[in-house]
């Protein structure tokens, strides 16, 4: 079939706008971390970065990811994705973190 | 050293005596369990980490309600639409081949017990039913671990000051991100081949009265459940895309294995964008405003991943126990969550009547579950994931393309007789399948999905 069937323009929001749709209460400190930074420095796959739907995990200069925890949608994907079981994943304290209005 | 005493003669554990049972998580499984236990006269505490039940929860989705209908005043439930059409659609890069079901029966009560809902509202309502039956609900409180005495589960630790609460029974209804169960070594962390990452948007159509009814051919509170497979939905990953209609909004999303997500060259968000841009999908979701973006995981290890469901003083229910059926044709977890919570609660009520808390006294729960559709369905489809994995290129890429091409051939409008077109169409499909033998083998392999 022809590669250029008419596509309708879809205006997808930027990730930033998407994250604005979710209410966030900052629990004050990160509920995410890495267990052993050296493991990340050696890790070449960065699967935590690849799987995250909210750009929380970002490649850091020393090979250890930066964690923008306040973007987190608490989906838990990074916890399963890391092939080295190197993700520290806790729930934000006393109900903090994100709240979905619709779900 | 204290001498080992057997269960019956050992001193009774120290419970606070305020509650008979603690439920971890006010999702579907937790509220079903709490409601059932409270109706049988037990003092129940539900601990939920969100600011209200549902505040942290998201699904597709279609709620399957045969059991909830029995447990509640169902007419008051906050439902969006009943499912009047189910559509299964194969997408190649720019083709669609679909099968749609619109049985007349689904328009009539009880609508095949399938309704779209939004979890924020629904879970809050469902937990309220448990509270009305006598359960106590605390929110914004996270269970951080179990309290054990000589192995027996006797309570929970929470992140509140003086947050230890004791009770004879603990129901672990914490969902697929089961940190408490895993932390207590009641189950291993699921491997990433058995967990899907899902992203979803809820879309609104400002100032466009009737747009959902028009686009999806709906009247009144009828709604649709559309499932999409193949390259155009989630690339070469194992999973799919979905569209569900709510009353005033549309839910659109993708879900696919984490194992494939980390191998893909696009993020889950980009996969969602690509799906929404597919020429067969875009007209359904265009000109919308995103009112929510969300993400969650789905445990999909099937029957083999279900851990031991009963322990001394505790049970595991719902997604925490891996009770989700996701085989492409069916994505069902809500009914299994409710059913497991219900059976676990009944087993606890009966054990409580006899003053027992040991695992053996709670075995009525897994036994009832095995007799129910939950385990029967999980086991029935256990083989499917392996088969699909082995045939994935064929199923998700080659076949969708072949069907689209075959359709194009079959209906081709030129000056050749129809017979030529039919032969061409057949050839395209047979080519993809590896001839008649390949087709026969494939049909044999998958016949159990539909029979
Ligand atoms: C994208 C997506 C689409 C889906 N679509 C469908 C569908 O269309 N149809 C269908 O039938 N199923 C669907 N499912 C599956 C379905 O959503 C689940 O099977 C179901 O929600 C499981 O219910 P649950 O009560 O076991 O867990 P959950 O609904 O996850 O509830 C767990 C609850 O426990 C709370 N909690 C967790 N940990 C703690 C803690 N430590 N302390 C206190 N509280 C805690 C959570 O906040 C939550 O309220 C879908 C799932 C996803 C992710
Ligand atoms: S995938 Fe695991 S080991 Fe690799 S960078 Fe991420 S957290 Fe570190
Ligand atoms: S839980 Fe989900 S959103 Fe949060 S950091 Fe992990 S992958 Fe990203």
Automatic annotation (TrEMBL), chain A:
<keyword id="KW-0535">Nitrogen fixation</keyword>
<feature type="domain" description="4Fe-4S ferredoxin-type">
    <location>
        <begin position="30"/>
        <end position="62"/>
    </location>
</feature>
<protein>
    <recommendedName>
        <fullName>Ferredoxin-like protein</fullName>
    </recommendedName>
</protein>
<dbReference type="GO" id="GO:0051536">
    <property type="term" value="F:iron-sulfur cluster binding"/>
</dbReference>
<dbReference type="InterPro" id="IPR007859">
    <property type="entry name" value="ETF-QO/FixX_C"/>
</dbReference>
<keyword id="KW-0479">Metal-binding</keyword>
<keyword id="KW-0411">Iron-sulfur</keyword>
<comment type="similarity">
    <text>To ferredoxins from P.putida and C.tartarivorum, ferredoxin I from A.vinelandii, ferredoxin II from D.desulfuricans.</text>
</comment>
<dbReference type="GO" id="GO:0016491">
    <property type="term" value="F:oxidoreductase activity"/>
</dbReference>
<dbReference type="InterPro" id="IPR017896">
    <property type="entry name" value="4Fe4S_Fe-S-bd"/>
</dbReference>
<keyword id="KW-0813">Transport</keyword>
<keyword id="KW-0408">Iron</keyword>
<dbReference type="InterPro" id="IPR012206">
    <property type="entry name" value="Fd_FixX"/>
</dbReference>
<dbReference type="GO" id="GO:0005506">
    <property type="term" value="F:iron ion binding"/>
</dbReference>
<comment type="function">
    <text>Could be a 3Fe-4S cluster-containing protein.</text>
</comment>
<keyword id="KW-0249">Electron transport</keyword>
<dbReference type="Pfam" id="PF05187">
    <property type="entry name" value="Fer4_ETF_QO"/>
</dbReference>
<feature type="domain" description="4Fe-4S ferredoxin-type">
    <location>
        <begin position="63"/>
        <end position="92"/>
    </location>
</feature>
<dbReference type="InterPro" id="IPR017900">
    <property type="entry name" value="4Fe4S_Fe_S_CS"/>
</dbReference>
Automatic annotation (TrEMBL), chain B:
<dbReference type="GO" id="GO:0071949">
    <property type="term" value="F:FAD binding"/>
</dbReference>
<protein>
    <submittedName>
        <fullName>FAD-dependent oxidoreductase</fullName>
    </submittedName>
</protein>
<dbReference type="InterPro" id="IPR002938">
    <property type="entry name" value="FAD-bd"/>
</dbReference>
<keyword id="KW-0560">Oxidoreductase</keyword>
<dbReference type="InterPro" id="IPR036188">
    <property type="entry name" value="FAD/NAD-bd_sf"/>
</dbReference>
<keyword id="KW-0274">FAD</keyword>
<keyword id="KW-0285">Flavoprotein</keyword>
<dbReference type="InterPro" id="IPR039651">
    <property type="entry name" value="FixC-like"/>
</dbReference>
<dbReference type="Pfam" id="PF01494">
    <property type="entry name" value="FAD_binding_3"/>
</dbReference>
<dbReference type="GO" id="GO:0016491">
    <property type="term" value="F:oxidoreductase activity"/>
</dbReference>
<feature type="domain" description="FAD-binding">
    <location>
        <begin position="20"/>
        <end position="367"/>
    </location>
</feature>
């Amino acid at each position: 079939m022809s590669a250029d069937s008419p596509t309708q323009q879809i205006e997808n929001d930027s990730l930033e706008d998407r994250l604005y749709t979710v209410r966030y209460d900052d629990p004050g400190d990160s509920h995410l971390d890495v267990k052993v930074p050296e493991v990340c420095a050696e890790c070449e796959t960065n699967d935590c970065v690849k799987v995250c739907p909210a750009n929380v995990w970002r490649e850091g200069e020393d090979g250890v990811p930066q964690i923008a925890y306040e973007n987190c949608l608490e989906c838990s994907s990074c916890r399963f994705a890391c092939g080295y079981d190197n993700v520290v994943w806790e729930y934000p304290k006393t109900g903090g973190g994100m709240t979905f209005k619709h779900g | 050293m204290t001498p080992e005493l057997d269960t019956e003669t050992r001193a009774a554990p120290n419970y606070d005596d305020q509650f008979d049972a603690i439920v971890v998580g006010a999702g579907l499984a937790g509220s079903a369990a709490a409601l059932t236990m409270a109706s049988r006269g037990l003092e129940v505490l539900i601990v939920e980490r969100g600011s209200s039940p549902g505040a942290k929860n998201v699904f597709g989705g279609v709620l399957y309600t045969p059991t909830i209908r029995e447990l509640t005043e169902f007419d008051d439930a906050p439902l969006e639409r009943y499912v009047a059409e189910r559509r299964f659609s194969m997408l190649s890069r720019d083709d669609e081949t679909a099968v749609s079901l619109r049985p007349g029966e689904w328009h009539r009560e009880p609508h095949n017990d399938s309704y779209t809902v939004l979890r924020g509202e629904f879970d809050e309502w469902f937990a309220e039913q448990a509270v009305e039956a006598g359960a106590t609900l605390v929110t914004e409180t996270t269970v951080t671990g179990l309290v054990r005495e000589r192995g027996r589960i006797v309570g929970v630790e929470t992140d509140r000051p003086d947050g230890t609460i004791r009770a004879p029974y603990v129901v672990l209804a914490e969902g697929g991100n089961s940190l408490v169960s895993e932390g207590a070594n009641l189950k291993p962390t699921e491997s990433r081949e058995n967990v899907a990452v899902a992203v979803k948007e809820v879309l609104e159509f400002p100032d466009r009265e009737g747009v959902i009814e028009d686009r999806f051919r709906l009247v009144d509170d009828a709604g649709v459940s559309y499932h999409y497979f193949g390259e155009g939905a989630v690339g070469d990953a194992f999973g799919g895309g979905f569209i569900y209609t709510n009353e005033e909004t549309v839910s659109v999303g993708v879900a696919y294995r984490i194992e494939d997500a980390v191998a893909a060259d696009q993020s889950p968000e980009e996969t969602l964008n690509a799906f929404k841009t597919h020429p067969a999908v875009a007209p359904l979701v265009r000109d919308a405003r995103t009112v929510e973006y969300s993400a969650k995981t789905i445990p999909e290890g099937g029957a083999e991943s279900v851990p031991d469901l009963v322990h001394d003083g505790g049970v595991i229910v719902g997604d925490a126990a891996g009770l989700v059926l996701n085989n492409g044709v069916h994505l069902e977890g809500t009914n299994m969550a409710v059913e497991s919570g219900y059976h676990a609660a009944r087993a606890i009520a009966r054990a409580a009547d006899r003053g027992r808390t040991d695992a053996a006294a709670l075995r009525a729960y897994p036994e009832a579950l095995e007799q129910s559709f939950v385990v029967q369905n999980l086991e029935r489809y256990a083989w499917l994931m392996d088969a699909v994995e082995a045939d994935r290129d064929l199923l998700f890429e080659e076949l969708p393309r072949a069907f689209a091409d075959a359709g194009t051939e079959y209906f081709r409008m030129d000056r050749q007789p129809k017979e030529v077109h039919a032969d061409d169409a057949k050839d395209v499909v047979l080519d993809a399948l590896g001839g008649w033998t390949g087709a026969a083998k494939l049909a044999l392999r998958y016949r159990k999905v539909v029979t």
